Amino acid sequence: MLRKLPGDHTRDIVSTVPTSVVFRPVVVNTPAIITLAALLVRALAGAARTVWRHPVACLAVTVPIALCLLLGWRTGLLVPLAVVSALTGWRFTEPASFTRWVGLRLRAWWVLMWVYRRHWQPVMVVSGLAKHLGAREYLPRLVKVTCTPTADVVRVKMLSGQSADAWQERADNLAHGFARPQCRVTLGAPGRLVLVFPRRDLLATAIPALPLPAGPLVASVPIGLREDGAPYLLKLHGTHVLVAGATGAGKGSWLWSAIRALLPAAAAGLVQLWALDPKLMELSYGRDLFGKRYAADPADCAELLEAAVQVMQERAARYAGVHHAHVPTVDDPFVVVIVDEVAFLTAYQTDRKLKERILGALATLTTQGRAVGFTVLAALQDPRKEVLSIRNLFPDKIALRLDEPTQVDLVLGDGARDRGALADQISSYPATGAGVGYVRLEANPEPVRVRAAYVSDTDIRAMVYEFAGVGEGR
Fold it and tell me: Does the annotation list 238 as a binding residue?
């Protein structure tokens, strides 16, 4: 710091206050040949990466040019025309195989270049997923884009130190930024994410009842379709399943689809169906399928549950030290206890002693039944803890249409909605939303969107006519 002495206008004296020292970095002059070599290496690496990721598109560009240079422009045009004609014939004669091997690959290249890579930088900046340090901008890396028949799948490498939660919180920003109706964020390899952008909804229309299985099915049964069009198999053996949804959300579709798929196994004596129907609305229509193992009155429901507990405990005593896991047989069948609107037996039951008996039996079945071949499949309208205190004893959960966003995490667990389980946004119109739900399994925290098939009254009457009493077992 400089200061002037009084009366002295000619000299400056440096004060004793310490001054800051500025260091200038040493400027290194890189030889031009090294700079050019580095640029050349980067260009070759970029070209090789492009050829590796998009071989079909690169061949479609380079082959005609090479033919024109080597054989003349006429030959260079004839070959591409022949290829286009062959592909057109393939497209109309075998559309499924053409779409799988060519159509989806071309679409992936197109949306990569025209949609995602073109808008990547502005979308990352505006959504707050890019970072600025000093004068430099850091962007997450767009790794790869693939297409399924219903969605674009974008694989991304996150910035170092970035969390997946930051992407999940900005899923709406990403969907709007790339002009897609929705974006779901799922975890990939360490440091990587998978962004799924649906293009069309295969679950927007009702699915008719699935055909009866040709043979007995026990472990997993067909319920409906996933959003990618693949069949969905619901695991029942070795777990317990809770289906939660508002009135009219389609809980009956899940219950009846499971019953329908289990009927051939029940006819073979490998499955027993025990039904509790306190509302007298859903399962009563096919009560002849369950025979004596059907109850509607709360007192009868308590007795039926206690009978199931007794059978389970007798089987557990026989298995002790002999069998480690249950294998369905005619002597020891797989027992499925189906409860429609379990809250009628727990929260809304006015008889305190009866409520305690029911809760105790359900708790015993859900804590001890899996290993010896007992499964509880329960439907619930109100997912609050005070309505069903044993909610967490169900390893696998299904959230149909719910009234509030907070209810999604109540059913599927913390963070499920942030992972894409938007059950509160499912349409309330039965034709488009009934039976649509998000499944979260014990073994996989990622929610899967599924629609259960609609089993009509006509289908149930036909099932009763063919299989009356098989669910009762022996």
Answer: no
